Structure formats: C-alpha cells, structure tokens
C-alpha cells in the first residue's frame, strides 16, 4: 500500500498501537520524530570528555546513532515502548546493600535476560501493525544497535531523562526497559512530557563513587555499573572500597529517587529473581566453578561479563566484607588458581583483612 497517501488516520492508529502494546505486556508506547540533534550534541560532548571509558562502541557507527534514517534507510518515525521490571518479590535492596556478607545484583538482572523477551514482544507488535497497514518497512531494537533509546523515549513522551541520566516517569519511576521499532510509517510524534527533577539532588549525593559529576552528566569510568559490567581489566584501586558488595551493577541512584516510590512491580515472571540472586551470600558465589557459573546463570544478563569478571567483582566485595574466617578462607582457596587479573583483586582483598 502507499502509506504516504493512505486514508489511515494515524492519530487514531497510534491509540490502537498503544492498546496492542499493553496487551503484549508493555506499559506505554509513544512515537518520536527523527530530530535527535540535542541528544547528538550531548553525546559528542560526553565522548570528548572521555566519559565512555572503554566503551568504544559508543564512538563507532559515525552519525548513525543520532540519525535513525542512516541506520535504517527509509525510517520516518520511531515507535518507543517501555516495560516495567521492578521485582516486587525480591529481597529489600538496602537490606542487601547494608549486609557485607551478601552480594548485591542490580534489580534488572535478577531474572532472565530481557533482550529476547522484549524483541519477541516488539516483533508481535509489528505483526499487529502489518495486519492493519499491510507490508511496511521496520526494524526492531532492544539495546542491540547504535540507538539513542533514552533520547527517543523522552521525545516520545515516555518520561524525561533525570539527573542520573535514566528515564523517569511520574507514575512508574525508572525501573523499566526500553525498546524501539524504526519504521517507514509516517506516524505523528506523541506529546513529550516536562521534567520533574526540580532541585532534587538525591541521586548525585548518594552515588558511592560520585560518578554523576553534574546534573544529567555521568562519568561512566567512575560508575559501578561500568566497573562491574563493561570494564574487562583491573578495577582502579581508588574505587574498590567504594563499591561495597555491589558485584553486578548499582542501583543506588534509582533506589534513592523519590519518583521510584511509584514504581510498579513487574507482571513478567521472567524478571523475577532466579537462583537466589536477590540476596546471595558472597562466599557461596565465590566458590562457584566456571561450569556452575555458566549453568546457573544460563539465560541471565549476568553471564555476559564472563567468569573472570565475576570472580574479580566478588573478590572486591569480599575485600569490603566484615573480616571473618570464612571470608579469608574463601579468598585464600582461590589464590594461585585464577588469572593474573583476578589474583590482583584477591591479593587486594586479603590486604583489606590484613592478611598477606
């Protein structure tokens, strides 16, 4: 069909898309135009300051990241969706963070990896659209390509980008995943929303490593999520004591955010805690073999950091744990059986307990 000259009322069509999206488990759907010039300027400034650290993929792809039609030829609009992931049944986060014998895993990673689930639901949404309009050009994304998903979600009215650089929604906080459909349908943009951070600086003040160097500006090189997930080498010593027991990601800036009192518990069973990851014992996790790590975390986003980084992160957390015989014995049991990179962190951890 000739979409440009069709008699479809696209405003009404978006309302139908929103209904389909809700039926597929998304909490909201909006549409963005392709003008990401403001986001492009912010990105270039961020890259120039080197705040991306070793995430070289943020520099690649030229201007495709901020010019959707360059990434997917023929794109006229972007459909943006969000899906809540807050695991209401999980152990209370602060109680875990404040227990040095336990390990804290970012709440988004307690269950199964969200990428496949989101992609499948977005593909089903595209099928709904195709039944209505006929064949059309589109491509589905879930954190899987150079896509400015936060900027797109903000333009589509799904929320605003907060001072911690996460997208916030007045009724759902920030605990949600984002996904996109780049499409050649001439959809009108939905209404954006105003920002509501005001004078609040809670996220900036609580960051353990002071990674939020200014409102709306994150130095990833200082961020615990970057240090535990993206960084593949040694964690700088200056940050190790500040990491506490956070072995995969860090939620402090979200946990403290006043808007997250409105966070909605997920209805997706895939996002609920598996293998007791919501409040596991550090010593137990450190004793996992690589086979156990791979089998127990099959389908989990945690698995992508690899076994070495898993041991590295836990070694740091054990160094920050309250001194006990079990902690020292666990660290010593791994000595001289691991890579040089992991050994460096074990040696550091033992030094924290005054063991040479």
TrEMBL record:
PROSITE patterns in the cross-refs: 4FE4S_FER_1 (PS00198), 4FE4S_FER_2 (PS51379)
Native source species: Methylophaga aminisulfidivorans MP
Compartments, record wording: Cytoplasm
Lineage, top ranks: Bacteria, Pseudomonadati, Pseudomonadota, Gammaproteobacteria, Thiotrichales
Entry function: Catalyzes the conversion of epoxyqueuosine (oQ) to queuosine (Q), which is a hypermodified base found in the wobble positions of tRNA(Asp), tRNA(Asn), tRNA(His) and tRNA(Tyr).
Subunit structure comment from the entry: Monomer.
Chief location of this protein within or outside the cell: cytoplasm
Reactions catalysed according to its record: epoxyqueuosine(34) in tRNA + AH2 = queuosine(34) in tRNA + A + H2O
Annotated cofactor note: Binds 2 [4Fe-4S] clusters per monomer.
GO cellular component annotations of the record: cytoplasm
Protein name: Epoxyqueuosine reductase
Chain sites annotated for binding [4Fe-4S] cluster 1: 197, 200, 203, 257
Entry's family note: Belongs to the QueG family.
Domain 4Fe-4S ferredoxin-type per the UniProt entry, residue ranges: 188-217
NCBIfam families referenced in this protein's UniProt entry, alphabetically: tRNA epoxyqueuosine(34) reductase QueG
Cofactor(s) listed: [4Fe-4S] cluster; cob(II)alamin
Matching InterPro entries: 4Fe4S_Fe-S-bd, 4Fe4S_Fe_S_CS, QueG, QueG_DUF1730
Gene Ontology BP, a term: tRNA queuosine(34) biosynthetic process
Residues of the active site: 143 (proton donor)
Chain residues that bind cob(II)alamin: 65, 143, 167, 178, 225, 250-251
Keyword Cytoplasm: yes
The keyword Oxidoreductase is annotated on this UniProt entry: yes
Keywords from the named record: 4Fe-4S, Cobalamin, Cobalt, Cytoplasm, Iron, Iron-sulfur, Metal-binding, Oxidoreductase, Queuosine biosynthesis, tRNA processing
Molecular function (Gene Ontology), one example: metal ion binding
Protein residues bound to [4Fe-4S] cluster 2: 207, 223, 250, 253
Enzyme Commission number(s): 1.17.99.6
């Amino acid at each position: 069909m000739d979409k440009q000259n069709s008699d479809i009322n696209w405003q009404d069509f978006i309302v139908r898309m929103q209904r389909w999206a809700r039926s597929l488990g998304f909490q909201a759907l909006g549409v963005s135009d392709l003008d990401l010039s403001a986001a492009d300027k912010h990105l270039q400034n961020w890259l120039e300051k080197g705040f991306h650290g070793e995430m070289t993929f943020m520099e690649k792809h030229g201007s495709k990241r901020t010019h959707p039609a360059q990434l997917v030829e023929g794109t006229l609009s972007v459909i943006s969706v969000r899906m809540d992931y807050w695991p209401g049944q999980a152990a209370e986060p602060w109680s875990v963070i404040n227990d040095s014998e336990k390990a804290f895993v970012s709440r988004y990673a307690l269950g199964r990896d969200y990428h496949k689930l989101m992609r499948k639901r977005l593909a089903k949404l595209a099928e709904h659209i195709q039944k209505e309009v006929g064949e059309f050009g589109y491509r589905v994304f879930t954190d899987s390509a150079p896509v400015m998903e936060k900027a797109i979600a903000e333009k589509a009215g799904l929320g605003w980008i907060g001072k911690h650089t996460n997208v916030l929604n007045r009724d759902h906080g920030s605990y949600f995943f984002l996904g996109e459909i780049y499409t050649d349908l001439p959809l009108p943009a939905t209404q954006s929303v105003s920002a509501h951070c005001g004078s609040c600086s809670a996220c900036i003040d609580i960051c353990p490593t002071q990674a939020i160097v200014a409102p709306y500006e994150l130095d990833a090189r200082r961020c615990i999520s970057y240090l535990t997930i993206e960084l593949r080498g040694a964690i700088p010593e200056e940050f190790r004591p500040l990491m506490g027991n956070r072995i995969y990601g860090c939620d402090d800036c979200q946990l403290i955010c006043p808007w997250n009192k409105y966070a909605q518990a997920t209805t997706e069973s895939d996002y609920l805690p598996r293998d007791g990851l919501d409040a596991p014992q550090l010593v137990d996790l450190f004793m996992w073999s690589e086979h156990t790590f791979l089998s127990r975390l099959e389908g989990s986003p945690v698995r992508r950091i690899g076994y070495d980084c898993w041991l590295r992160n836990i070694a740091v957390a054990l160094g920050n744990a309250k001194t006990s015989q079990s902690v020292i014995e666990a660290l010593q049991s791994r000595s001289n059986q691991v890579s040089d990179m992991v050994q460096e962190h074990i040696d550091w951890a033992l030094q924290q307990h005054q063991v040479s």
